[in-house]
Specification:
There is one protein chain. The chain is of the alpha+beta class. The chain has a single domain, classed as Aminopeptidase (3-Layer(aba) Sandwich). Helix content is 29%, strand content 34%. Strand 4, helix 3 and strand 5 form a beta-alpha-beta unit. This is N-acetyltransferase. Its EC number is 2.3.1.183.
Length: 176
Amino acid sequence: MPLPSLQIRDATEPDIPAIQAIYAHHVLHGTATFEEIPPDEAGMKRRLRTLQEASLPFLVAELDGMVRGYCYANFYHTRSAYRYTLEDTVYLEEGWRGRGLGKALLSALLERCEAGGWRQMVALIGDSTNAGSIGLHRSLGFRQIGILEKVGLKFGQWHDVVMMQKNLGKGSSDTP
């Protein structure tokens, strides 16, 4: 479905209320995230600033002046050997899945990360039944590399984490 008024842009502090509301919905009603208490706006602002200070991309999808989704890349782990590996995060406002918004966001994020010189992108997808996120990542060249079984307890049930990975740019074909 075409989204003619879609604008993918860098997130800014005025976007925080929309970002926080989108994420809070997923925290309270889904298993894509294993967080159980939604961060408040101040917490989301700190996350945005931390990523901006590290020169990591944090993007929003704006349609008709409204933020309908967001995505960002963060370091996969803090140990120095992981410095070329990132982990992606993508969340959409309820009702916007399956319309191409997630693909537009994640595509833009991947382009930014390749341009930034990073070599690998990892997706840790909460819940192995999350067909939408798994399909989105697969459609953009991610491959499933494993499943962490029953590692998250949320809503009184154990949930898996699907691990997916994609080469960025030259990937591991050489060293930077």
